[in-house]
Structure formats: C-alpha cells, structure tokens
Design brief:
135 residues, mainly alpha, rod-shaped
C-alpha cells in the first residue's frame, strides 16, 4: 500500500520571506556603508580644518615674536601683547565653535552607525520582555 502525503502549497508569505529578509539585509548594509562613507568623508575635512587652525596659530606666534623684536619700549611691547591676546581670544572662540560643530558631526555619524548596529542585534520576535518587580 502506497502512502501519499499531501503537502500544502507554498503560501505567498513563505515564498516572499527570503526575499524580504534579503531586502532588509541589503537595506541595512546600504545604510551601514552610507554611514561609514560619511564618517570617512568627515574625518579628512576635520583634519584639514584643524591643520589650518594650527597654521594660523603658528603664524600668529611668529608675528608676535617679530613685533616684540621690533618693539623699542615697554608700552610698545604691551601693545603688541594686547593685540596678540585679542587675536588669540578670537581664534580660541572660533576653535571652540568649530570643535563643538565637529563633535556634533561625529556624534551624528556615530549615532547612525550605532542605530544600524542595534537594529541588526534586535530580537526577531517583538514579544515584550517581562519587567522585574520593584518592591
């Protein structure tokens, strides 16, 4: 006697599941590559900005030394120092703003990478976890 087992036909859900999974994986990879690309693009820009700041500080210090050598009196030297200090404080304020803006750029890119990483580690089921009782 020959047994014949009826198997249910594949539903559209089971056929589309692997494609959905592949699509989700592809989207995550694209998002990851996009975030990494932004990070890679951001770092050289930041480096150029800070090199420019270092060069400006070097030039300011060089100018200070030249003016101090040329100064013939204490009041002239004092005026040179005051001008230098004023310019240095402006540069410090600009560098502080730049530092905060750069930190924000890095935080934004890092948050995107972290969000992508956390999404990949999320459990497949959406079941809520039981909260411990607090007494």
């Amino acid at each position: 006697m020959e047994q014949h087992i009826d198997t249910p036909a594949h539903s559209s859900t089971s056929e589309s599941f692997p494609m959905d999974l592949v699509g989700m994986g592809r989207k995550r990879l694209e998002a990851l590559f996009d975030a990494q690309s932004k990070l890679i693009d951001t770092l050289p820009d930041l480096s150029r900005e800070w090199i420019s700041c270092a060069e400006a500080e070097r030039d300011l210090s060089s100018d200070l030394l030249a003016k101090l050598r040329a100064a013939r009196s204490i009041p002239e030297s004092t005026k040179v120092y005051q001008e230098w200090l004023s310019r240095r404080m402006e540069m410090f304020a600009d560098e502080t703003r730049m530092l905060l803006a750069d930190a924000q750029k890095l935080v934004d890119v890092s948050a995107r990478l972290f969000a992508i990483d956390m999404a990949s580690k999320a459990p497949a089921s959406a079941e809520p976890t039981a909260k411990p009782e607090v007494h």
